[in-house]
Amino acid sequence: MNGYLQVCLEKLDKSEALRYMGYGRTVPDERILSMMDECEKVLLGVIKPCAIYHVFDIQPLEDGVAVCGTSLVLRGKAISEHLAGCVKCVLLAATLSAQADRVIRRYEATDMTRAVMADFLASAAVEQICDKVDEQVRGEFEEFFQTWRFSPGYGDLPLDIQGEFLDILQAQKRIGLNATENNILTPRKSVTAVIGLSDHDIPKGRQGCAACNMREVCQFRKRGDHCGI
Question: For the AdoMet activation domain, which residue ranges apply (predicted)?
């Protein structure tokens, strides 16, 4: 099943953006909150949040999981564990559009504080889009149990699948999302992810820090927090 979702965001998750900025339980002063309101308003005025997804049957392999009907193999122990017991997977891609990148670059040239705020607000916004995809998939596949999202680059799932991942979804044509030679998504405020669908209840597996290949250098972990994955 193919899906396209154009998301209307009336507000951005400022509490999540503040957590990304390191505030945690600390309440920022009025100046910071006012600047954040300004950045939110600017972003909401230009972004075009959207997402696409496709549901595939999957087949476990010795070194990963094959996405049936494509040449894509999701390789690695972490993704194999993540999709254990699943019979299908959802490949999804979400983006805020190039306008978000332009706002951040414009702030970078004039005000780094606002640039950082806009950057983290945009990151939170992409996750809001993905949450909407989660909800839509859950509604369309009520008979299945659903895993959390797992993106290329988590654990040992390599980033170098980004190009093929986007090709399968026709993301370049449908939502203007591409990957560079270094497997960086452009527009930058974008996400690709895999969701597993199982016909039986899924026990909670390794999630977040345990599966992340950035866990040894993660600034969230160093201050006793987590990124929310």
Answer: 92-195
